Amino acid sequence: MLGCVRPSDPLTALCAAALAVSLLGAVPARGDVSGPAVTSTETEAKVPARVVSMNLCTDQLLLALADPDQIVSLSHFATDPAMSVRWKQAQAYPANYGRAEALSLLKPDLVLADTWSNPDTLRMLRHLGIRVAQLPVGTSPDEIRARITQAGALLGHPDRAARMIKAFDARLAAIKRPKPGLRAAVIGPGGYGYGPHTLDGQILSMAGIANVVSGPGLDYGGRIPLEDLVMDHPDLLIGAGAQEGMGTSRAQAVLNHPVLRALPRVSGLRDARWSCGDPAVLGAVSELAALGRKIQKKRN
Asked: Is residue 37 one of the residues assigned to a domain?
């Protein structure tokens, strides 16, 4: 059954059976799997009392915008300091693993999901009459503002969302950036470079630093041959992954290739602030911009 954990677990089997019985009466006729529609009027009128988040980045917005008693459960990533900026706050809430049968037992009146959440899980939840909202991708400043606005409306706190956006814009405008001309690359396991349309690429852009990983076919990144990277000689090489240096795979070992030693490289820069498109990302932008100014100062 989609979304279920080990079939040998008696509790899971019971949950799965209950969900299956519910689905018998919930599956619409003639193969319609779109689930019940939620009108814009309903979205505005319903202030949810029991909200579940099944994604790390919706966790962050839920924690920032909702009343504490609105939150029923967060994803299991929410308490991981390497990924979640609000991990301490998240410890007050039960964790979920994004499985439909477990989420349905929480009796939520709203489930927050992301663009990349499991579509089968979302379809099951909608079949059960549970309201599901998928927030759009948030990488650029405009997209981040749109996510905040939508989350605030869904949670019944548009004024909080507006204040968050105002603070976001003020903080973004106040960042002191290096002079134009500085170039950097964010490289992950296997030599994968992060393009300008990724969150990593947008952090570079907001910090006033040009992205070496750009050009045709690289909007969202791609594998960058080490030879090309060395020839481009960026002013700064940033290792991708909050747990950089802890990998044991050959893909991770690429980051330690001797040929990269000639490039100015920084370790430990990417942390939980690089995980999601929300106001916390500005901490990463500010730190990167300060590093860029430091590099330029040393050259002068």
From this structure: no
Torsions phi, psi for 7 (to 5 deg): -60, -25
Assess contact for 254 and 231: CB atoms under 8 A: no
Asked if the model's pLDDT at residue 43 lies above 70, the reply is: no
Residue 300 confidence (pLDDT): 76
For residue 53, being part of any structural domain is answered with yes
Domain of residue 86, residue span: 43-169
DSSP string covering 94-144, please? -EE---HHHHHHT--SEEEEETTS-HHHHHHHHHTT--EEEEPP--SHHHH
Query: Can you say how many angstroms the Cα of residue 232 is from the centroid of all Cα atoms in its chain?
Result: 29
Domain boundary pick from 113, 142, 169: 169
What dihedral do alpha carbons 72, 73, 74, 80 form, nearest 10°? 120
Residues 67 and 165 in one domain: yes
Identify the bridge partners of residue 113 per DSSP, sorted by sequence position.
Answer: 134
CA gap 161, 48 in Å, rounded: 16
Condensed to tens digits (0 to 9), the pLDDT of residues 102-129 reads 999 999 999 999 998 999 999 999 999 9
- pLDDT exceeding 90 applies to what percent of the chain? 68
Cα dihedral 120, 122, 126, 132 in deg (nearest 10): -170
Domains identified in the chain, total number: 2
Shared domain for 124 and 214, answered yes or no, is no
